[in-house]
Write a structure and sequence with these properties.
- This protein is mostly helical.
- It is 63% helix and 0% strand.
- It is built from five helices and no strands.
- Helix 2 runs antiparallel to helix 4.
- The protein is elongated and about 115 Å long.
């Protein structure tokens, strides 16, 4: 590099940025509204939230998932006991959702096994395939052919018909 630099061509930037001078004496409306917002809305909300957090911090509650007590099955409800029927219906819906999640978890495990094993999936994932077949068969036996609008009563009737068919098959086999 040459020693004779042209300082006019390559000026050095100023060491400090100058402070801009206010041209008007009117206060900035943005800072005014920000201050009003902070004192009128933000401060009370923050105070209430911090107070609630202090109260919750005193008594810790560990919430993992809601646990419902088991209610009687629809077959155990008396005729005209609408509350029992409603609770049995809600219990059936929760059981159906749990069974759907079980099938989905087993299906995801099988997919992960197939992804992990690659070409050896048929011999290394046989246990998962068998488990998925059992779980889907159990789900299909209980909830299959009910449709979207299936309820506890139709599921109970399906179970009753299946049991009657099994008894007929046993009677025919024993004869």
């Amino acid at each position: 590099m040459p020693e004779d630099r042209d300082w006019e061509a390559y000026k050095v930037p100023p060491t400090r940025t100058p402070v801009s001078e206010r041209i008007t004496s009117v206060p900035n409306p943005a800072t005014f509204f920000q201050t009003v917002f902070n004192y009128v809305i933000d401060a009370p909300v923050t105070f209430v939230r911090e107070w609630i957090e202090r109260q919750q911090g005193k008594n810790k509650f560990y919430y993992y998932h809601q646990q419902f007590r088991r209610v009687p099955d629809l077959s155990e409800c008396l005729e005209g006991d609408y509350l029992c029927c409603f609770e049995a219906e809600a219990q059936w819906r929760r059981d159906r959702m749990v069974d759907q999640e079980i099938v989905e978890i087993v299906r995801e495990r099988l997919g992960a096994c197939k992804q992990r094993e690659g070409p050896n999936q048929f011999q290394n994932c046989a246990k998962e395939v068998e488990l998925l077949a059992q779980v889907t068969k159990a789900y299909q036996d209980r909830y299959g052919d009910l449709g979207v609008h299936g309820n506890a009563r139709t599921c109970l009737m399906k179970q009753k018909h299946r049991m009657m068919e099994e008894r007929k098959a046993q009677a025919n086999a024993s004869q």
